[in-house]
Design goal:
By secondary structure, the chain is α/β, with parallel strands linked by helices. It has 3 domains: about 210 residues, Ribonuclease H-like superfamily/Ribonuclease H (Nucleotidyltransferase, domain 5, 2-Layer Sandwich), CATH 3.30.420.10; about 90 residues, HRDC domain (DNA polymerase, domain 1), CATH 1.10.150.80; about 90 residues, HRDC domain (DNA polymerase, domain 1). Helix content is about 50%, strand content about 10%. The protein has 21 helices and 8 strands. The strands form 2 sheets. A 6-stranded mixed beta sheet has the order 2-5-4-3-6-7, with helices on both faces. Strands 1-8 form a two-stranded parallel sheet. Strand 6, helix 4 and strand 7 form a beta-alpha-beta unit. Helix 6 packs across helix 8 and helix 17 packs across helix 21. The N and C termini lie far apart (about 55 Å).
């Protein structure tokens, strides 16, 4: 741990072997840095971080639930020799110069998949990554939130009261800036402790593969039918109702995009489902619906009525189909009826993965992705062997370490099913 972090609590050293004693981390060790909002100030940050040494702690704050999309409204970085910086992406929307200065540095993030897309929008893209949340999962830590990891591994407690704040607020309150600075205060120290634990447990190469996979993953394409993600849509059991969900969802999305508001603040998902279940015909019908009594929902009553009317007027041939398409297997609860042999394979493969995960002290989804398990069980290779299963798992995106652990036990389990005549 660096000297600056050791002095974070009035000169106290970090209690990594504190015997359960937790020290509150109340202030950044160098105080709350000024927010970088101009090109001149950003140039100074670039120079300081280029001259710094070691890994770079990185975090970003968004305004999920308040604004449309997932853009960053504050970026925090910390590096030995440079200290902590807080960058306002509204005033400094291009971080490509900082990206170039840090091209050779390892960036340390917690739950990297959450922040990498919004950082990439600003031009900040890690070439080397250490994800402390993912490392905690591989090591079997029972709680892998940043606050829990800092507390359990380093012995400090962090204030987490502003994680769901509206970070598009300007100016940002001082207590929010303090919270943001503290989020990167000990991130590199956490990385060092987890790196040592990964080494001791023989999991460092596994983690390296996982980090590389995160960096190599292509951007997720837009969902073909994002309206199907509406919460509560399972209650809509006919195609005309689905047409209403689609029409109202698309109308809400246009308004949310134009007003830069989270769609749920324009119209809650529950209201969309209620419109699909009742299919109102008049403004009076909408005005009587309890689900549409929020100010934003009532502000656009005529829009919702037009969307419902448009859906109602469609010919049945243009109604969306029940259930989602896609190339994946059906929901697992339907397997016993549709393909009993596949259901037996799924039970067997899940049991193998659960046993391996327990043996290696990690969640099952980190030992092998559930989607890969389902696809393997639904469409196994013609020949059941470790080699054939390895090829299938590789095609499904499994990493080498996962294939090395799982291919032989999976092959044996499926071969046992065949030999018993269960398939």
């Amino acid at each position: 741990m660096s000297e600056t972090s050791q002095s974070a609590q009035s000169g106290e050293t970090a209690p990594q072997d504190s015997g359960g004693i937790v020290t509150p981390l109340l202030e950044p060790s160098e105080g709350i840095p000024p927010v970088v909002q101009t090109a001149e100030a950003l140039n100074q940050v670039v120079a300081a971080f280029a001259a710094g040494t070691g890994p770079v702690a990185v975090d970003a704050e968004r305004a999920s639930g308040y604004r449309y999309g997932q853009r960053a409204y504050l970026v925090q970085l910390r590096r030995e020799g440079a200290g902590t910086t807080l960058i306002d992406p509204i005033g400094c929307p291009d971080l490509s110069a900082l990206d170039s200065a840090l091209a050779d540095a390892e960036m340390v993030l917690h739950a990297a998949n959450q922040d990498l897309p919004c950082l990439a929008e600003l031009g900040l893209v890690p070439r080397r990554l250490f994800d402390t949340e993912l490392a905690g999962r591989l090591l079997g830590h029972p709680r892998v939130g940043l606050g829990s990891m800092i507390e359990n591994v380093l012995g400090y407690s962090l204030e987490k009261g502003h994680s769901a704040a509206d970070w598009s607020t300007r100016p940002l309150p001082e207590e929010w800036l303090r919270y943001a600075a503290l989020d990167v205060e000990l991130l590199v120290e956490l990385r060092e402790a987890l790196h040592a634990e990964l080494t001791d447990t023989g999991k460092l190469e596994w983690a390296a593969e996982e980090f590389e996979a995160i960096l190599a993953a292509p951007p997720k394409p837009p969902r073909a039918e994002p309206w199907r993600r509406t919460s509560g849509i399972h209650r809509v059991r006919n195609r005309r109702g689905l047409a209403v969900v689609r029409a109202v969802w698309e109308a809400r999305d246009r308004i949310a995009r134009d007003r830069d508001l989270s769609p749920g603040r324009v119209l809650p998902d529950a209201a969309i489902v209620e419109l699909a279940l009742t299919v109102p015909h008049t403004l009076a019908d909408l005005q009587a619906m309890p689900a549409l009594r929020t100010r934003n929902a009532r502000r656009h009553l005529s829009v919702w009525l037009r969307a419902v009317s448009k859906a109602r007027a469609l010919p049945e041939s243009e109604y969306p189909e029940q259930g989602q398409g896609g190339d994946g297997p059906p929901p697992a609860h339907r397997w016993a009826e549709r393909d009993p042999e596949a259901a037996k394979r799924l039970t067997a493969t899940r049991a193998v993965i659960a046993a391996l995960a327990d043996e290696h002290h990690m969640p099952t989804e980190n030992l092998l992705q559930p989607d890969a398990v389902r696809r393997l069980a639904w469409s196994p290779p013609d020949e059941i062997s470790a080699e054939a299963l390895s090829a299938v798992l590789l095609a499904l995106g499994a990493r080498s370490w996962q294939i090395g652990l799982a291919s032989v036990p999976l092959a044996k389990a499926l071969q046992r099913l065949e030999s018993k005549g269960d398939l």
